[in-house]
Specification:
about 425 residues, four-stranded mixed sheet, binds uridine-diphosphate-N-acetylglucosamine
Length: about 425
């Protein structure tokens, strides 16, 4: 076990490189199950969730080879055990992304029950309803979900609510169906687009008739391919908040500004100076005290739930009152109690958080409860007076590559130390 120790108070300045997007890497790795040939994937972030997906593929029989130029070659033609084990699913719910491709390619899958998680119940009922409608026979017991089919059939399915991994799972499931599958009310997140672009460049026929309807015309096979993963807009957004919260000046390289539009809008509303180029976004918060902003999380192109906790940290020390409404997950305010320990003035009412900006946060001992909550604690620690200690940082390592290295390069003082 390790913890992060942060000495707060430094203004951050400089440039930071954006890593590949975890949430694009995970479905693209799962989709290699659909291929007869090896696939090479580049720009994968070095993260625990990515190694968990590779371990899962490997445990089912995929061959993984690390290439010299930081690529990873995955050959899933040798899968002989289509089972997602409990030890892996429990550490990463996105393991359920193998369900669709396993059914499409092998006609069966056995997936450990994902259960609840820290940010809400997060059921997978939409994934299962879609697969059932495509002809999968699904049974469950207390530990596993068993899925089997002779042949998945093209269908017309409407998601009751937008689901990112649900959309990805059903797209992958329908790749080889005879005829045309129509999926309505689909997610439009850039990471879903990255999966669609990758599959299309491998020979799939996936299109959108309108923003939220995806059409998949079945094909017989997918071709050998190489793919470089999209940059991580949430990581980029988090480093921009690090610049903003410290009244600093930070440039994030390797990210297209279009991916960050709703986030950039909020920074502008708060009074920060934003400059953008083809592949960078820069924030200058040195000249002004930022005004708190109201936020309401929505599926893309709305403000992302994965940036809610980071903006909460920023609002706690920005001028004025603000309200943050969390519309995507029902229990995504676990960072509130920890931020309050650091002096934040926040009250909760159902899915809304009311924040009164304070002059200072004070360093404290806090515990990370989920991935983005832990990012908000690091951000608060950057401005907290004195020293902040963050425990359970395995959550951070699931989604941020070398977070302390990147922040220290910008002028932060963060040390990782073992807990003895
Ligand atoms: C993905 C992202 C996660 C992000 C979330 C919302 C990955 C690996 N993770 O998670 O970082 O926070 O999108 O942008 O891409 N729901 C159901 N039944 C289902 C599926 C979802 O009720 O079968 C509900 C969820 O409980 C939640 C909402 O739908 O309230 C959206 O969840 P969803 O988009 O599925 O999140 P994930 O795909 O798990």
């Amino acid at each position: 076990m390790e913890r992060l120790i942060i000495k707060g108070g430094n203004q951050l300045h400089g440039e930071v490189e954006c890593s590949g997007a975890k949430n694009a890497g995970l479905p693209i790795l799962a989709s290699t199950i659909l291929f007869d040939d090896p696939v090479s994937v580049f720009n994968l972030p070095h993260l625990k969730d990515i190694s968990t997906m590779l371990e899962l593929l490997n445990s089912m029989g995929s061959m993984i080879r690390f290439e010299e130029d930081d690529g990873i070659e995955i050959d899933s033609s040798s899968i002989n055990n289509p089972e997602a084990r409990y030890e892996l699913v429990k550490t990463m719910r996105a393991s359920v992304l193998v369900m669709g491709p396993l059914l499409a390619k092998y006609g069966k899958a056995k997936i450990s029950q994902p259960g609840g998680c820290n940010i809400g119940t997060r059921p997978i009922d939409f994934h299962l309803a879609g697969l059932q409608q495509m002809g999968a026979n699904i049974t469950t017991d207390s530990k596993f979900i068993y899925l089997e089919t002779e042949n998945l059939k093209a269908t017309h399915f409407k998601f009751p609510k937008i689901s990112v991994t649900g959309t990805e799972n059903l797209i992958m499931a329908s790749i080889f169906c005879d005829g045309t599958t129509t999926l309505e009310n689909c997610a439009r997140e850039p990471e879903v687009e990255d999966l669609i672009n990758f599959l299309n460049s491998s020979g799939a026929k996936i299109s959108r008739t309108d923003d939220s309807t995806v059409i998949i015309e079945g094909v017989g096979t997918l071709n050998r391919n190489n793919w470089s993963i999209l940059p991580d807009r949430i990581e980029a957004g988090t480093y921009l908040v690090a610049g903003a919260i410290t009244n600093g000046h930070v440039k994030v390289n390797g990210i297209q500004p279009t991916l960050l539009e709703p986030i950039i809008e909020k920074f502008k509303e708060m009074g920060a100076v934003i400059s953008t180029g083809k592949d960078f976004v820069e924030i200058d918060a040195t000249l002004t005290d930022l005004k708190a902003c109201n936020i309401s999380t929505e599926p893309f192109p709305g403000f992302p739930t994965d940036m809610q906790a980071q903006f909460m940290a920023l609002n706690t020390i920005s001028k004025g009152e603000s309200t943050i409404v969390e519309n995507v997950f029902e229990n995504r305010f676990q960072h509130v109690v920890e931020l309050k320990k650091m002096g934040a003035d926040i009250s909760l009412n159902g899915s809304s958080a009311m924040i009164n900006g304070v002059a200072n946060l004070v360093g404290s001992s806090v515990t990370a409860s989920d991935l983005r909550a832990s990012a908000s604690l690091v951000l608060a620690g950057l401005v907290g007076k004195n020293r902040t200690e963050i425990e359970d940082i395995f959550h951070i390592d699931r989604g941020y590559e070398c977070i302390e290295e990147k922040l220290n390069k910008l002028g932060a003082e963060i040390v990782r130390e073992p807990i003895v």
